[in-house]
Design a protein that fits this description.
EC number: 1.3.7.7
Main location: plastid
Catalytic activity: chlorophyllide a + oxidized 2[4Fe-4S]-[ferredoxin] + 2 ADP + 2 phosphate = protochlorophyllide a + reduced 2[4Fe-4S]-[ferredoxin] + 2 ATP + 2 H2O
CATH class of the largest domain: Alpha Beta
Largest sheet: 6 strands, parallel
Radius of gyration: 24 Å
Distance between the termini: 60 Å
Family: Belongs to the BchN/ChlN family.
Helix content: 40-55%
Pathway: Porphyrin-containing compound metabolism; chlorophyll biosynthesis (light-independent)
CATH superfamily of the largest domain: Nitrogenase molybdenum iron protein domain
Length: 461
């Protein structure tokens, strides 16, 4: 019996070529509908956010900038007074349920005590203030979300594993048709435990609903999401709560949930691709002693739907340069689709948090009879370009800074940031993920077909 091939980890000393983590505002302000974000930083950060949020030009983003001037940096002004003035203006204009301060590199350099100021202002203005430092000390721009969610973990209410008899009857009337009263969600003495499973990660509401539905089909209802759409609907956390992440860049949130709130982490692969989604649900089911029902048929059904895309990618090769920390999950999915992954560049990886994903990667390579790709942390981009020149991959998934130079070297590219903003989680959205991957491949194929048809036409003439 062939054993699993162990992945090879390497570490180079390259610079981080990623977005600034404050870009998380671009999707978090849409997810937390009653929030307002205050980014504390220089005008450069403001210009960056304006560009990052350019797609929302017809909407009015709920964020503001607190821009330090010379007086702030030289400590001639009172930070608390200035932030109080801005927060009062936000309260007057927006009346948010929560204000989230995003600290930048500037606040680190001038040693601004945001954590000390926030509790005082919170009492004065009567609005909760959550502090998250999303600065250049992070490895990837997606970790900005991780910082915000880790900070919000402290604001979640404490889970009480018991509810009153009257509450039990009210809840049971709503869920008795969907949940078997004999399963583990009913604890001792028939009391319904409503705090069992919490998912963390910011996904569009439609995608979150799809994952909720998939869990509900297995009689594993989700009791809440972090973040929630409304601040006052944050899920309860505590010792009786199992938490599970949907993105591989949320290791800080997972650690905070376990250490500070005493939650139990479900170490599962991430629900990206039909294979990852099935493995994710199966792991959650195993934690709650629920036997999965129909998952294999569900996965096979999705693979049949993807057959037209699979014809395009089968046998093609891909090279990940590293940008958003989704690389391991995306590589595993593409290998399952029939592609060869030469290298997985990744800015940083928490191997404990991604242990289940790495194991699934090994099983996928064995199942598909593909070589195990190299995993390079903190890759040196110059060395990567040299390796790509030798390997000549069909596709490179890279940050925007390197796309044009690689295209000039006749290597098709796809911006990795697009996978961050696209809906790629769950069974249904696997098609959207492959649409992004195959677009440059189909463009080259269409171009070559066009050239051939044109040459044939010339000959006929």
């Amino acid at each position: 019996m062939k054993t699993l091939e162990i992945p090879t980890f390497e570490c180079e000393t390259g610079n981080y070529h990623t977005f600034c983590p404050i870009s998380c505002v671009a999707w978090l302000y849409q997810k937390i509908e009653d929030s307002s974000f205050l980014v504390v930083g220089t005008k450069t950060r403001g210009y960056f956010l304006q560009n990052a949020l350019g797609v929302t030009i017809f909407a009015e983003p709920r964020y503001a900038m607190a821009e330090p001037e010379e007086g702030d940096i030289s400590a001639q002004l009172n930070d608390q007074k200035e932030l109080e003035r801005i927060c009062l203006r936000i309260k007057s204009d927006r009346n948010p349920s929560v204000i989230i301060w995003i600290g930048t590199c500037t606040t680190e350099i001038v040693k601004m005590d945001l954590e000390g100021i926030a509790p005082k202002l919170e009492k004065q203005i009567g609005v909760p203030i959550v502090v998250a430092r999303a600065n250049g000390l992070d490895h990837a721009f997606t970790q900005g979300e991780d910082t915000v969610l880790a900070a919000m973990t402290h604001r979640c209410p404490e889970c009480n594993p018991r509810i009153t008899h009257q509450q039990e009857e009210d809840v049971a009337e709503n869920v008795v048709a969907d949940v078997d009263r004999s399963n583990k969600f009913f604890g001792e003495k028939g009391k319904l435990n409503r705090c069992n499973s919490v998912l963390f990660g910011s996904l569009p509401s439609s995608v979150a609903s799809q994952l909720n539905l998939e869990s509900k089909r297995q009689s594993v209802p989700v009791s809440g999401w972090l973040p929630s759409q409304k601040y006052n609907e944050l899920p309860a956390l505590g010792e009786s709560v199992y938490v599970c992440g949907v993105n591989p860049f949320l290791s800080r949130t997972a650690t905070t949930s376990m250490r500070r709130r005493k939650c139990q982490l479900v170490g599962a692969p991430f629900p990206i691709g039909p294979d990852g989604t099935r493995a994710w649900i199966e792991k959650i089911c195993s934690v709650f002693d629920v036997k999965p029902d129909g998952l294999e048929e569900r996965e096979n059904q999705i693979w049949k739907i993807l057959s037209d895309y699979l014809e395009v990618v089968t046998g093609k090769s891909v090279f990940f340069m590293g940008d958003n920390l989704l690389e391991i999950s995306m590589a595993r999915f593409l290998i399952r689709c029939g592609m060869v992954v030469y290298e997985i560049g990744i800015p940083y990886m928490d191997r404990r948090y991604q242990a289940a994903e790495l194991l699934l990667l090994q099983h996928t390579c064995k199942k598909m009879k593909k070589p195990m790709p190299r995993i390079v942390e903190k890759p040196d981009n110059y060395s990567q370009v040299q390796r790509m020149h030798e390997l000549q991959p069909d596709l490179a998934i890279t940050g925007m800074a390197h796309a044009n130079p690689l295209e000039a070297r006749d290597i098709d590219t796809k911006w990795s940031v697009e996978f961050t903003f696209a809906q790629i989680h769950g069974f249904v959205n696997a098609r959207d993920a492959l649409e992004l991957v195959t677009r440059p491949l189909r463009r080259r194929s269409d171009s070559s077909l066009g050239c051939r048809s044109l040459s044939k036409q010339t000959v006929d003439i």
